[in-house]
Amino acid sequence: MENIPNHLSKIDGQLGKLIILGFPFEELATNASFEEMIFLFLHNHLPNKNELDNVTKKLLSHRYLDEKILDVLKNAAANDIELIEGVRIGVSCLTMDMQSHRIDKEGINGALKIIASVPIITASYWRLLNGQPLVEPHLELGHAANYLYMLTGEKPIPEDVKTLEIYLNTVIEHGMNASTFAARVVMSTRSDFVSAVTAAIGAMKGVLHGGAPGPVLDMLLEMQESGDIEGYLRHKFENRERLMGFGHRVYRVKDPRAILLSQVSADIWKRKENKEFWGLAVDVETTALRLLKEYKPNRSIETNVEYYTALVLHGLGLPSALFTSTFTVSRVVGWLAHCLEQLELDRIIRPSSDYTGPSEQRWCPIEER
Ligand code: ACO
Asked: Where is the signal peptide, in residue numbers (predicted)?
């Protein structure tokens, strides 16, 4: 199959560089608001003041949860369906609340509806799962601040909002990763945005992709408790377990997003009483990289984005069960920008496969089998 065109991001896995729409990703991540990133991804240029006001207003107009969707989420929570699956269920229900179910009519407004809804569905479902009363969306807060507000019921401090925005901007897009590919395959059949995003969330959930940061935090907490970093890690390698937060299909050096998020997490943890947790994470990283050279000598396995994602999100006070869905709050923008590109291309994605099954078989009646 020919390569899939992608005008959104360019990754150099040897040099550890990530370019987003022509910008070094670090510049966008640290300077842009999340609303500016949304505009950039849907329109391919940075917004001027008017354009930013317009996109912000449109996002606000979608900042509510439809009663029919809420009912479904209540049912899912009563059945103890885990958070990311509840988010997937909630997103698939957006079909009931879309202006049009036809992709040629959905356009950018359909994409904005989904982008605005993901944090609302996530925060609402999280509170339902925890038996807490729902928090109404705050119409005067930005996209990221409102997400924190709806999760906690408290207005977040500006430093936390900025940290969350840097995180969301950092993970918004990353080439033809598993979830983005899933979205593009669905879109390539001329399906619809809701179906594409629902499929992408299914791919996102797995621990080899967006499901990794929760287990990273769990692992760090276990090592903090045991106090034996090297013994814990050796035990994992001896059992041929994968170390979450390490390794990448494309990067042969440290993931540049991990470098940025390690600086961001260092800043958050400096403000905390439990400062030594960040130091523990650095010690674990150093020991893990040394042991990876010993156990996997022929592989270039380095730290990936999920390792310091765990430190940033935990530093913001989010429990590990929220990590994959918080990643989704951001990556949904990348998925939808890819969907728009795929729509424009209008070419079905059909990878070839190598047949590895048996040959020379003949039909045999059931009595003779
Ligand atoms: N821990 C231990 N061994 C590893 C790890 C790891 N984290 N990553 C790769 N390896 C080993 C594999 O066991 C394999 O060894 P073997 O050939 O001796 O059996 C070898 O390296 C190659 O493994 P592949 O799965 O082929 O490597 P690939 O580059 O395709 O995998 C992946 C990438 C899935 C991310 C892998 O590194 C991994 O499982 N990492 C842990 C999960 C994780 O952190 N995922 C998040 C990735 S970032 C993101 O998706 C946003």
From this structure: none
Are 63 and 46 found together in one domain? yes
User: Is 35 assigned a catalytic role?
Assistant: no
Catalytic annotation, pick one of 35, 36, 165, 248: 248
The catalytic residue among 35, 285, 306, 338 is 306
**Does the active-site annotation cover 138?**
no
Domain containing residue 108: CATH number:
1.10.580.10
The reply to whether 151 and 283 lie within a common domain is: no
Q: Distance from the CA of 245 to the center of ligand 1, in angstroms?
A: 9
Question: Which alpha helices (DSSP H) does the chain contain, by range?
Answer: 25-31, 34-43, 49-61, 67-78, 83-93, 103-129, 143-152, 158-170, 178-188, 193-204, 213-226, 229-238, 256-270, 276-295, 305-315, 323-345
Ligand 1 center from residue 188 Cα (angstroms): 28
Ligand 1 contact via 245 beta carbon (within 6 Å): yes
Give 178-235 pLDDT, tens digit per residue.
Answer: 999 999 999 999 999 999 999 999 999 999 999 999 999 999 999 999 999 999 999 9
Count of structural domains, the chain = 2
In angstroms, the first-to-last Cα distance of the chain is 39
β-strand partners of 57: none
pLDDT, the chain, mean: 95
Residue 58 lies in a domain: yes
Q: How many CB atoms lie within 10 A of CB 332?
A: 28
With tokens 């510049």, the residue in question is: 27
246 lines ligand 1 (CB under 6 A): yes
- Say yes or no: 338 and 303 in one domain: no
93 and 221 share one domain: no
Domain of 67? Answer: 9-207+320-345
What digits encode the pLDDT tens for the residues 11-22? Answer: 999 999 999 999
Contacts of 208 (CB under 8 A, 6+ apart): 178, 242
Is residue 15, in this structure, part of any structural domain at all?
yes
Residue whose CA lies nearest to ligand 1 atom number 21: 299
